[in-house]
Write a structure and sequence with these properties.
Number of strands: 8
Number of helices: 6
Largest sheet: 3 strands, antiparallel
Number of domains: 2
Radius of gyration: 29 Å
Structural class: alpha+beta
Strand order of the largest sheet: 1-2-3
Strand content: 15-25%
């Protein structure tokens, strides 16, 4: 049978108009699974791994991350993710992930669980001690510098402009001069 492309399309259209091919999709619908993202709240975020800034959609239900996927509306990645970004779900849902602070005293061999309040107080004390030990009000020429050279900071590529601004204000307020960013390393 010799059928042209136009003839094939006419024949296909007539077949569909006459009741299709006799295939019903109702059994397939009956066995279809419900989407795992149904009844979730979606939030947009930025991948924390590198400085590209790929957009990710995070689906949350009852305070738990249910799914993560690339954001198709993001102009940077347009829904695609690298292997690291594709595995971001495991960052939130991983039985090996620490969810409580641990502390190991100097020269100790064992870690011990401490409260968040205790951990933050210890961090603040260490920052204050380091800053006080290394603070310089004036340089060798006698010029006022008000800086500390005993603390350095490496920022995150996942921070947006507002977060970077706040972080810089905080670090400069402490007197830090050694401030680096992950995107440049």
């Amino acid at each position: 049978m010799d059928v042209s492309r136009r003839g094939f399309l006419k024949l296909s259209g007539a077949t569909l108009a006459a009741g299709g091919l006799g295939v019903s999709l109702s059994p397939a619908r009956a066995h279809a699974k419900e989407l795992k993202t149904r009844f979730t709240k979606e939030s947009l975020t930025v991948c924390p791994y590198c400085s590209v800034g790929c957009g990710i959609i995070v689906s949350v239900r009852d305070g738990k991350v249910i799914n993560t996927e690339g954001d198709p509306d993001n102009p940077i990645n347009q829904g695609t993710l690298c292997p690291k970004g594709g595995s971001i779900y495991q960052m939130a849902n991983n039985k090996n992930r620490l969810d409580k602070p641990l502390y190991r005293a100097p020269f100790a061999t064992e870690w011990k669980e401490i409260s968040w309040e205790e951990a933050l107080d210890k961090i603040a004390r260490n920052i204050k001690t380091s800053r006080d030990k290394s603070f310089k009000a004036r340089n060798a020429k006698g010029e006022l510098v008000n800086r500390t050279e005993g603390i350095a900071s490496v920022g995150s590529a996942a921070m947006d402009n507002e977060e970077c601004w706040l972080y810089q204000k905080f670090l400069r307020g402490l007197g830090l001069v050694y401030i680096e960013h992950q995107a440049r390393i």
